[in-house]
Write a structure and sequence with these properties.
Chain lengths: 206, 206
DNA sequence: AAATGGTTTAACCAAATGGTTAAATTAGAT
DNA sequence: ATCTAATTTAACCATTTGGTTAAACCATTT
């Protein structure tokens, strides 16, 4: 056993480096040599452990997708009422992507150039949003929220969470006149404000 | 004069081809040869007319940005009341990006890898969202909408418009189980529903 | 300590890629 | 018709890039 637990072994170093480079530059923009340099190893080791650029990229992409796809849905079961869940989902998700701000854009961008990637990945993951659909429909029946297509509500919540992060340069430059601190403050505020906004759009008061 | 008005001249053919290829594949993924093939011309002509890949890309990027940045703001002046404007802005913008669905993702993605591009482009364009800020603040004062940060409202509207289009593969596959017609119907519906959603989130009824 | 098998490296390779060049072609002016 | 200047093309070039290979290295077993 080489692995001393304290320092990463080669495979881990490669994955960490590949994540960094691929997520930052995309499949087409990434260079195998840059990944090797980032990992501090010889380029041949990339092929020794992962065969090809495409295969290594696949690892990174699946990791990224798995990290970001399911958390949303899981957060939606539990005993709390719908609005509390919504608040929790948004706060959790925004915190997660705030820590990995390049990943949503990476996934969207790579899927845009190669939507096929999604087909394979979904086979291995079986994502089921049916429970979320059901939860929304129940609220509509209970008349706690107004009639709305569940798909529409889900898309809205996702868009409100993801957009300010993937569009950071534009938002920061144009809306906040280049002030990164204002941008960050906005992100922080959205952890509560997005749910607040959505709830005030759908809640039926009586 | 070579130009017969009916058929595009070489420069135009190049730009059209470059738009298609760059917007589809991004700067890093695009190939000069592919652009030449798409335009039906010799690769040397790309350099003859536009010097380098970077310069040709700059043309395309500025065109894309100019097409998509300002329309939003312009639609916001006029005599109509705030909610009518909002409805019009959303419908207009969604129609525009529906016809060019790859452009928003293209801009976001390229700015993500090189935010510096935005700095130059803003010099040539001077985008001023101040009027929109003001319009929102006035509505708040008039108590037609609840107290909300203007930046927050703008970001929300943009996110609700842009997200379902840039995330098409995910939305279509996961939320609509692969049904493109359902996806398209959703987009169509959003031309009115997004404004409706936003208005119900901010309107003060009395 | 010698053998073994996994790991790592330097050197190398073929294909791809952005870009150049010089010749050929074309269109308009004289 | 001939000249001229812009346009277009094929051939070429240097560099980059993903990938391979064979030798070196190193830890463990015997």
């Amino acid at each position: 056993m080489v692995n001393k637990m304290t320092e990463k072994n080669t495979e881990e170093k490669i994955i960490a480096a590949a994540e960094k480079v691929f997520i930052e530059k995309g499949l087409a923009g990434a260079r195998m040599q840059e990944i090797a340099d980032e990992a501090g190893i010889n380029k041949s080791l990339l092929h020794y452990y992962y065969r090809s650029k495409e295969l290594l990229f696949g690892m990174v992409f699946r990791f990224a997708f798995k990290t970001f796809a399911p958390d949303l849905l899981k957060a939606f079961d539990g005993p709390d009422d719908f609005f509390t869940k919504l608040e929790r989902v948004v706060a959790t998700y925004l915190t997660l992507i705030e820590k990995n701000p390049h990943i949503p854009g990476f996934i969207i961008s790579e899927l845009s150039t190669n939507p096929n990637r999604l087909v394979e990945i979904i086979k291995l993951m079986n994502i089921d949003i049916q429970p979320v659909f059901k939860a929304i429909e129940e609220e509509i029946e209970k008349k706690t929220i107004r009639k709305i297509e569940p798909s529409e509500l889900i898309i809205n919540v996702l868009g409100l969470c993801v957009f300010p992060i993937i569009a950071k340069p534009m938002v920061e430059t144009i809306i906040f006149k280049g002030s990164e601190s204002d941008y960050k403050a906005m992100l922080e505020k959205r952890k509560t404000e997005v749910a607040h906004f959505v709830i005030s759009a759908i809640k039926i008061k009586d």
